[in-house]
Amino acid sequence: MTPTPVGMRCPGCARERTKVKTVRSRSSWLRGRSSSPVVTQALIAINVIVFIAETAAGSPLGGVNSGAVGTLYLKGALYGPYIADLHQYYRLLTYGFLHDGILHIAFNMWFLFILGPMLETAIGRVNLVVVYFVSVLAGAFGALVLTPMDPTVGASGALFGILGALMVVAYYRGISIWQSGLALTLIINIVFSLTLAGISIGGHLGGFVGGAICGWLIVQLGERRNMQAAAIAGCVAVAAICVIAAIAVAGSQGLAPNGITL
Questions:
Q1: Do 27 and 117 form a contact (C-beta atoms < 8 A)?
Q2: What is the chain's alpha carbon radius of gyration, rounded to the nearest angstrom?
Q3: Between 135 and which of 77, 90, 158, 173 could a Cys-Cys bridge form, CB atoms 3.0 to 4.6 Å apart?
Q4: 205 contacts 213 by C-beta, under 8 angstroms
Q5: Which of 136, 153, 156, 104 shows the shortest CA–CA distance to 238?
Q6: 186 exposed, middle or buried (CB, 10 Å; 0-12, 13-18, 19+)?
Q7: Cβ-contact 160, 107 below 8 angstroms
Q8: Which tens digit of pLDDT belongs to each residue from 81-101?
Q9: How far apart are CA 161 and CA 242, in angstroms?
Q10: What angle (nearest 5°) sits at the alpha carbon of residue 245, between those of residues 231 and 70?
Q11: What is the DSSP secondary structure assignment for residue 222, as one 8-state letter?
């Protein structure tokens, strides 16, 4: 017998080369697993393109504190009274692709560049898209609960959602959230959220909870045979609840932020 990487084999068998074929089943295609993080790259590209358009429309690179507010910022930022009074519900989504200055988008895109491929590899492309957009809506709800009268922009809610989903997936797959660094990442970001001015704590918390719920649904349902559709349906239900709840708490004051009118 001859020792080989796959165990003890006879000399004749050890000399043979066995062809290995990978069968891509329908269920694995639905999960969309791939080593190439194309969805993460696409999301980064979309955010950067929107930021360039935002800057071209008048938003300063230093943010609104520089004394100017661009057209896209005005038209797309999350602001409670515009949702309650003018029924501009699209703001629940558009705010997540706008950023307040170059430092804001640089930090968020770096965060997405680090965490996005990890989650995309773990749960697949389609599931990453679902987690991202549900987390944007959950972040909008959280921001409107705590600060409905403060304009809010940024992908932070979606990024906290990705972190929440990653922690849930890691837990159920037996990966330590401490050894992986996910818990430390959460703690650091919570400290920043509580200590730095101008950060939407509600947006971060809402996004994290929304992403964690989606991660749980994907692990518990999406990875079972013939249950992928149920997992997606559950995530869509979470998104719908967030939208309804966000509209309910948006508030109605009839005022624009800092006297700005549309």
A1: no
A2: 22
A3: 158
A4: no
A5: 136
A6: middle
A7: no
A8: 999 888 999 999 999 999 999
A9: 13
A10: 100
A11: I
Question: SS3 for 175?
Answer: coil
User: Using one digit for the tens of pLDDT, what is the confidence trace for 32-45?
Assistant: 455 689 999 999 99
- For residues 73 and 20, give the distance between their C-alpha atoms in angstroms, rounded to a whole number: 54
Q: For residue 144, give the DSSP letter.
A: H
- pTM of this prediction? 0.82
- List the structure tokens of 61: 């690179």
**Residues 139 and 156 sit within 8 Å (Cβ to Cβ):** yes
Among 143, 153, 155, 148, which residue's Cα sits nearest to residue 112? 155
Instruction: Tokens 């990453």: give the residue.
Output: 128
Write the single-letter amino acid at 167: M
Q: Which two tokens stand for residue 23?
A: 């069968």
CB atoms within 10 A of CB 175: 15
Nearest to 37 by CA among 116, 134, 131: 116
Residues with Cβ within 8 Å of residue 75, at least 6 apart in sequence: 94, 262
DSSP secondary structure letter of residue 202: H
Q: What is the pLDDT of residue 261?
A: 35
